[in-house]
Structures are given as structure tokens and as C-alpha cells.
Amino acid sequence: MRTRTTILSALAAVMFASAPFSAIAQTQKFTSKAPTAADWAALAKLPDFTGVWEISPGTRGGGAGAAPARPSLTPAYEAKRKAYLATPPEDSEAANCLPAGMPGIMGQPYPMEFLLTPGKVTIVIEAYTQVRHIYTDGRPLPADPDLEFHGTSVGRWERDALVVETVGFSPLTQIERGVPHGDKMKIVERFQLTAPDTMSIQTTITDPEVLMAPYTSSRNLSRHRNWTIAEYICEENNRNFVDEKGRAGINLANPGGLPPKKD
């Protein structure tokens, strides 16, 4: 007689063998190489994106100094937006420390640090201590990406601009408040220095299920050479919650999930 442990182990093996292995296969299709001295030297020839950047005032949602245009939605999703606005929840899951994900995380009023290494640009975002990886090592976009808050980002250098394509987004992220995205949403960003300490980001979202046409917005970032990214622990002393109907509440009895004090 097989023990329960043996049976569970056998089931796990069968599930692993029969489960879709596209993510594993995709990982194995492209093999990152150890950087050489020439790879490190090549970084010096790229635009200097390193440092801590902050979104310039007036450009968080669109062009500088102007109210951003809203994306043009298909009738079905315009109806979803109107229904959301008719009875909006008191708060979002952000009250429960759920991050915005893409594309919203790149427009939040928190600093972000750019780090360049061979084959990768890493963006450390102070809000929620989020990290984005943009792969510039020549790998293709995955055909069957894992669904993640930031998606999977692949970039290429076009002269002095970094062009990034991102696919595969968590269903918990939205194009804008109250507007979910479709399965085929794609985001293209163009990062470019416009001055020694000024960067522009042009973002274009395409989603054939949700958008009538591609939606493009732009914002400027200012570099602060002496800044560092601060620690951001959303869960610390968190008293807020949001119930299944979107109603916000405060738990005064056990803030932050801390264990009760002993007498």
C-alpha cells in the first residue's frame, strides 16, 4: 500500500509533467551569457540614465502643463467605466498594499532609480519597493508570458533612446481606474534624455479589446543626483482594509498585523 506522502508525490510528478511547460521552455530558449569586459565598456557609450528620477510636476498624466487626454474606449469598456463611476468603491486595493502595476506604477509621484548593467536596465521604484527588469540582451518577447504586475519587458537601444515593449499583465492591473485591460494589451515606452538631467518617457498602450485606438501619453522626469531611494514598507502599521464590495475600513484592534502585547 502506498502511503499518503507517496501518492501526493506521484500526483505532483504527474501534474508537473502534464502541465503547460511554455514558461520553462521559453526560459531555456534564451541563455544569458556572462558579461565580458567589452560588455561593461559598452555601457559607457550608452546614454547616462543612472540615478534617481522624479516625475516633473504637471506631467504625471500626460503632456507638460496640460490635462491629459483620456483613452478612447470600445463601447463595452466605456460602459464598464461608466458603471464604475456611477457607484465607485470607497477605496482600491492599494489600501491593502496592492501595487498599481503597469502602466500605473510608472506615473506615481515617487522617485525611481535607474540601474544599467550589461543586457539589462533595472528600475527600482520607491512606491511599494517595486522592481522592474528590462532585458536588453537580445531576447524576444515571450509568446506565452506569465501574467505579472509589471509584465515582461524587452528593450532595445535606438541610438540615444531606449525602446521597451512589455506584454503579459496581471488581471489585477488596469489601464486606468475602473477600466480593466484585455488579454492582448501591449505597452511600448520610449525613454530618452532631453537634457543632462531631464528624461522624457513616451508611453503607447494598444489593446484591441479595450481601446478604439492606441493611447499615447508622455511625461518628463527630473534627475536628483544626491537622492537615494527611501524604504517603503506599505504593510508596516497598516490599519486599512477593503472588503469585497470595495468598502474601506480601519482595523484599530490589530494595526499592521502585529502580535498582541503581553501584559
Q: What's the short version?
A:
With 263 residues, the chain is of the alpha+beta class.
Describe the structure.
This protein is α+β, with helices and mostly antiparallel strands and about 260 residues long. The protein is built from 4 helices and 13 strands. It has helices at about 5-20, 20-30, 35-45, 75-85, and strands at about 50-55, 110-115, 120-125, 130-135, 150-160, 160-165, 175, 180, 185-195, 200-205, 215-225, 240, 250. The protein has a 9-stranded mixed beta barrel with strand order 1-2-3-4-5-6-9-10-11. It has a two-stranded antiparallel sheet with strand order 7-8.
How are the secondary structure elements laid out?
Blueprint (H helix, E strand, L loop, with lengths): L3 H15 L3 H8 L7 H7 L7 E5 L19 H12 L25 E6 L2 E6 L4 E6 L16 E7 L2 E7 L6 E3 L2 E2 L5 E10 L2 E9 L8 E10 L15 E3 L5 E3 L13
Parallel strand pairs: 4-5
Antiparallel strand pairs: 1-2, 1-11, 2-3, 3-4, 5-6, 6-9, 7-8, 9-10, 10-11, 12-13
